[in-house]
Design goal:
The chain has 466 residues and is mainly α. It has 25 helices and no strands. The protein starts with 7 loop residues before the first helix and ends with a helix.
């Protein structure tokens, strides 16, 4: 199918676009809580026999992230067993089953169970797609192609925010199930990762895929030579990876980076978006405002694909965090003023919307997109699957904590202090990126490892992995 396209670059685009169709429905699932939690709390709109409580709502939002903490590492082992392609296809199974369960849900436990299983599948998918994309893309296209994940995730969120508030719960569930089924079909036509094929001794097949994606036999053989250097043509003992200084350094940076990317509060704000807009009690319609914010998020993700190849990764990340810091401070200021004022008017009516737009835009144009590019780049071949899996386990654990206890935190210390805490986290993560995260733009995986330590140490690491 890909051979119809004459340009190798177009073939790479086509493969990454197809694999990210599965991320579209993941985005819909991520955007699901914003309109659906409001409906489930409403006695006239809920399909359940009673409205849900605040505690039940927090579990529905967060349970998938908690479950993925315990399952993602085990599932991550499948990356090197059945391959990246079939891992992506595997994630479609729980999504299809759960989307049908949602249509007929009548009790809270059905939603909690469904959100747990679909969350496990989606989080595993978000771990697999960056690995697959980084191995499909050539060095000069890796940055722009790996940002497609955030674009498609944002598009899915836009669909949920645009359709969810204006349809019934059951109608939206049917739309959700239909889109999952449609987007699952093209996945069967994807090529597997050439790196995975080579690691399994299928060198000829790996060269065939690389010739299709790189355009020439010489380019394919050069990349195969890089694979050989990376793997030393030996089976890697996974336990040895945790004894190597550079691998541990990469892992430490990626774990802190992943944790920081969630402690800044974006997902806590995003999942409760419509609820937050309702709580502001301004004249802006929450349903319309959430659609606007969703469109801004999608636009920001598209912008990232354009700026990623023009600017360094670190500059984009630091700029996005500064913007988020300003937005979180402004949200805190609004809610602090709101505590002492019965009604707001004029500019104050629009301050929450402007602040949320700033937070969403800056996250999606920077941290939210670069995260999926940078984490796989920090690890060289043998360590990539394990490193990415562990990093995203930390990511999911922190998402669970921030989404599960966000409402409780706002009730206990107040929304103003909560948003100011998020702004403080933005400042800390900004400093961490400036001093600790290496620049990866335009570098191959070996170059990135050398930037984490001297060449001699890096050579020792490679030798110890054989």
């Amino acid at each position: 199918m890909l051979s119809v396209l004459k340009s190798p670059r177009l073939r790479q685009y086509a493969v990454i676009l197809l694999v990210n169709l599965s991320v579209l429905t993941t985005g819909m699932n991520l955007g699901w809580p914003s309109p659906m939690i409001v409906k489930l709390r409403n006695a006239t709109e809920t399909p359940l026999y009673r409205p849900i409580t605040e505690e039940e709502g927090s579990w529905i939002v967060s349970v998938g992230f908690l479950c993925s903490v315990f399952t993602n590492f085990a599932l991550g082992m499948l990356l090197d067993c059945i391959g990246r392609k079939y891992c992506v296809i595997l994630t479609c199974v729980p999504k299809i089953i759960v989307s049908i369960l949602f249509i007929f849900a009548t009790d809270v436990w059905m939603l909690v169970l469904g959100r747990a299983f679909i969350g496990i599948g989606d989080i595993f998918l978000l771990s697999v797609v960056p690995v697959y994309a980084s191995e499909i893309a050539s060095k000069d296209m890796r940055g722009i192609l790996c940002t497609f994940q955030q674009v498609f995730s944002s598009l899915g969120i836009v669909i949920s925010l645009s359709v969810g508030p204006f349809t019934s719960y059951r109608t939206f569930s049917i739309v959700f199930a239909a889109i999952i089924l449609i987007t699952s079909i093209p996945l069967f036509f994807l090529p597997d990762s050439p790196y995975f094929l080579y690691s399994k001794g299928r060198t000829n097949k790996a060269i065939e895929v690389l010739k299709l994606l790189r355009g020439t036999d010489q380019a394919a053989k050069e990349e195969i030579a890089e694979y050989a250097i990376s793997m030393n043509n030996e089976k890697v003992d996974k336990m040895k990876l945790f004894k190597n200084r550079l691998v541990l350094k990469s892992l430490g940076i990626s774990m802190v980076f992943c944790a920081g990317s969630q402690l800044i509060g974006f997902n806590a704000v995003s999942f409760y978006l419509q609820t937050i807009l309702i709580s502001t009690k301004t004249n802006v319609m929450p349903e319309i405002a959430s659609v606007i914010i969703g469109l801004i998020q999608f636009f920001a993700s598209c912008c990232t694909t354009l700026v990623t190849e023009r600017f360094n990764r670190k500059h984009i990340l630091i700029s996005s965090l500064i913007g988020m810091l300003i937005g979180m401070v402004a949200l805190g200021v609004f809610f602090k003023i709101r505590e002492n004022t019965q009604e707001v008017s004029g500019f104050m009516n629009y301050l929450p919307l402007i602040s949320l737009i700033l937070v969403v835009y800056c996250y999606s144009a920077g941290m939210g997109s670069i995260l999926w590019v940078l984490i796989p780049e920090l690890f060289e071949g043998p360590a990539r699957a394990v490193g990415v899996t562990i990093s995203f386990i930390i990511n999911m654990l922190v998402i669970f904590l921030t989404t599960k206890y966000f409402t409780a935190l706002t009730l206990y210390i107040g929304p103003a202090i909560t948003y100011w805490l998020f702004s403080g986290a933005c400042a800390i993560v900004c400093l961490f990126i400036y001093y600790c995260v290496p620049e990866t733009k335009g570098k191959n995986f070996s170059d990135i490892q050398e930037s984490l330590g001297d060449r001699e140490a890096n050579d020792n690491v490679k030798g110890s992995l054989s």
